[in-house]
Amino acid sequence: MPVTVHEKTGIFHxxxxxVSYVMMVLPNGEMGQLYxxxxxxxxxxxSHLLELGHRDMAPVxxxxxxxxxxxxxxxxxxxxxxxxxxxxxxxxxxxxQPAFEILQENGSRLSHLEYCGYRTFEGKxxxxxxxxxxxxxxxxxxxxxxxxxxxxxxxxxELHYTIYQDLPVITRHAVWINKSAAGITLVLSRAMSLNLxxxxxxxxxxxxxxxxLRERYVDRxxxxxxxxSIGSMRGHSSHQFNPFVALARTGTDEVxxxxxxxxxVYSGNFLVQAEVDTMGVTRLMIGIHPQSFAWPLKxxxxxxxxxxxxxxxxxxxxxxxxTFHKLFRNRLARGYWRDRERPIVINNWEATYxxxxxxxxxxxxxEAKKLGVEMFVLDDGWFGHRDDDSTSLGDWYPDLKKxxxxxxxxxxKVEALGMKFGLWIEPEMVSPESDLYRAHPEWVLGSDxxxxxxxxxxxxxxxxxxEVTDHLYETLEKLIAGARISYIKWDMxxxxxxxxxxxxxxxxxxxxLHRQILGVYRLYERLTESFPEILFxxxxxxxxxxxxxxxxxxxxxxxxxxxDAAERVKIQYGTxxxxxxxxxxxxxxxxxxxxxYRSVSMFTRGAVAAWGSFGYELDxxxxxxxxxxxxxxxxxxxxxxxxxxxKGEFYRxxxxxxxxxxxxxxxxxxxxxxxxxxxxxxxxVNAGYRRMKLQGxxxxxxxxxxxxxxxxxxxxxLENGARASERQPLAHYGDELMxxxxxxxxxxxxxxxxxxxxxxxxARIFLVEAV
Length: 771
Ligand code: GLA
Description:
Distance between the termini: 41 Å
Shape: globular
Low-confidence stretches: 71-75, 747-753
Number of strands: 44
Mean pLDDT: 94
Structural class: alpha+beta
Strand content: 25-35%
Bound molecules: alpha-D-galactopyranose
């Protein structure tokens, strides 16, 4: 039983064969946290784990000496300041950052949440209006709900914990209910999804930091005294930080060490914070960013926080990532495309930008079809009179100058070529220069008395208004139903700055940023429900909203607007900390690359893009004959291996943030094969011998290693790293490949010892197969 309740001792133990999470009702009625980590035996009483001690200056709740026979800690005092808690408050003795705050009508923010009951059930419930992980069968997980109340204010809190049976995963969220007398409004000015107090601070904090075009770089530093945090106040999860953090024991690497991974299933403003107090206790929390957030609760109303996902690994960062991948791929992503192999697309953005007409589009599509591409995606510039980015967002009807037969006719023509058709939209936005804005200036966020900031010449529609989301749904539903559309790229190209909703009262204003993202979710839910077989890809100026919330609606996301393979290696590596390969959309683009002006071989571009949902972002009519042959070979390779890459276990081998080389691999669930990427940024001169240790193989199986040819993508036999196409390949035991490694050095003293192209940004792909 994953949830064990010991009513007599007030102990709650969530456990499976990987993790344990132990809580108890404290002597003052609040909930305490006793243990989170690798699984331990269950027992009736864990109260001896509660550490108390006299500390100067600490506000004392009461002296425990001689009190409550249940907890046997002897003579000491009970102060919240030094107790690990489940969901701490501020103002009643704990001086650290609180998980919540309730502003009451008398101005008080004091609260005391007392345990008043619990319930358990099989499986997991849906979160109202919010994305969340799920179960397909109730036996996959069990849920515990702890009920607490603040008697003085009438606030009631439910802490929800779900533990998965076969994964080291616990999900949490909180539900607030105003149980006070009619007419009384409580204002939640802070409501975290999760708080976790850990006994010490011997951790490195790892987060994903970046910017547009270089999203999700791995950032790691030791925890130090005080508060350290990351977050977003941009109205979307952002390019700058991702709603994820890992606390890894000092020295933890990819394969060993203890890691706590924490992710928030949410796409709006978030805060992740670790506070190390003077006693070295770490308080970790995640939730909606409290800046510009306050949620009024009238009597009887409730508020549900987004879901936090807690992953435990004692197999290093790799173990943590594989758990996130499994959960997010199979129990967060949903629908028709969840388990299906994703189509190979060609997108015209970098080929034409907004300067195209039907003939040009059909020319690219026809050429791409000859190469084996399966879907054409028409990007920005097809609607209103959008010849540049200063106009027409909101006017979701085709520009008949460019496309005389509209989207309906174009999509039919593309399908007649034997390809599927996809379309770009950016529903949350409006250009000031648009029919929609002229008709409804009151539909944008911002206040009439103030100047409103623009981003990319656009304004943000106010999705807290149901008339706006209804209008968007009806417009887009008609557009999609009226054409042969198989894929939607849903973009979002500016951060929210002026979060003010016209026509709404003062209390409403601090709910706007959260309501905005709820509006996005509502629209996604309706459209994905109406078109269940359409593949949705989310996007936000590249990877500005690459988060678990989006994955619930769109099983893949455009990883970055930087399509240079040399840059993508870092972006994909960082993204893989949390997100499965199936969620990363990667395209081969033209050289010189449009973002970095770097030229990288066609093989490297394909070899890096292969690890995800694959496509092209170039003008297929501009390819040389040689490139056409290479593209055909790439496509053949992707078609053969995409299902394998989507379902296998992912291992990171060498980090681009540590040196010149990057390595990662996918191992089949039966461990009988693996596909490996070795990427080297700069061509070294007279370098030493280099080996890369593989992971995840069966140590006792003998494997033959082959390498993909850089032109034909056919497998060439290898003998311990050196090409040996004429000879019989040697087999290597898995333990040898994992402990000694695969030889990567292919040239010594400038003399070529193999046929591998010597170049900067060199990628190699290996196949390791049991013989
Ligand atoms: C964003 C996307 C790009 C492209 C452009 C179109 O930047 O990330 O892929 O769709 O918008 O304007």
